[in-house]
């Protein structure tokens, strides 16, 4: 019984860790402003490409070494995608 409870606890714990960014990412929509993305995803991002503030790409890194890129054109989210480090 103790083994079963331990496995159940670990499953729940690992599932909860995997959903930290997933909850936020489910709210992302094309056309959002950079301020909306930053308020949703947090302040810890890196600007990886910048032509001007309205046309840039920012990146977030999660604890699973996934890199999340958000590309803005004319101040609106044009596309977003994930890469692994």
Count the DSSP helices: 3
- Describe the sheet with the most strands: 4 strands, antiparallel
**Would you state the CATH class?**
Alpha Beta
Q: What is the CATH topology descriptor?
A: Beta-lactamase Inhibitory Protein, Chain:B, domain 1
Total number of beta strands: 4
Residue windows where pLDDT falls under 50 for at least 5 positions: none
CA-atom Rg in angstroms: 16 Å
CATH architecture: 2-Layer Sandwich
Strand order of the largest sheet: 1-2-3-4
Average pLDDT reading: 84
Give the H and E element order.
HHHEEEE
Please report which band the strand proportion falls in: under 5%, 5-15%, 15-25%, 25-35%, 35-45% or over 45%.
Answer: 35-45%
Gross morphology? elongated
Helix content: 25-40%
Q: What oligomeric arrangement do these chains adopt?
A: single chain
* Structural class computed from helices and strand pairing: alpha+beta
User: How far is it from the N-terminal to the C-terminal residue, by CA?
Assistant: 39 Å
> What is the total number of structural domains?
1
Description of the structure:
With 85 residues, the chain is α+β, with helices and mostly antiparallel strands. It has a single domain (2-84), classed as Beta-lactamase Inhibitory Protein, Chain:B, domain 1 (2-Layer Sandwich). 36% of the residues lie in helices and 36% in strands. The chain has helices spanning 2-18, 20-25, 34-41, and strands spanning 46-52, 55-61, 66-73, 76-84. It has a 4-stranded antiparallel sheet, with helices on one face. The protein is elongated and about 60 Å long. The termini are far apart.
């Amino acid at each position: 019984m103790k083994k079963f409870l331990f496995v159940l606890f670990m499953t729940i714990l690992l599932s909860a860790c995997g959903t930290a960014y997933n909850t936020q990412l489910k709210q992302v929509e094309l056309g959002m402003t950079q301020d909306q993305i930053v308020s949703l995803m947090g302040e810890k991002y890196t600007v990886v490409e910048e032509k001007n503030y309205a046309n840039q790409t920012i990146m977030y890194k999660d604890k699973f070494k996934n890199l999340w890129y958000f590309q803005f054109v004319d101040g609106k989210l044009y596309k977003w995608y994930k890469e692994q480090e």
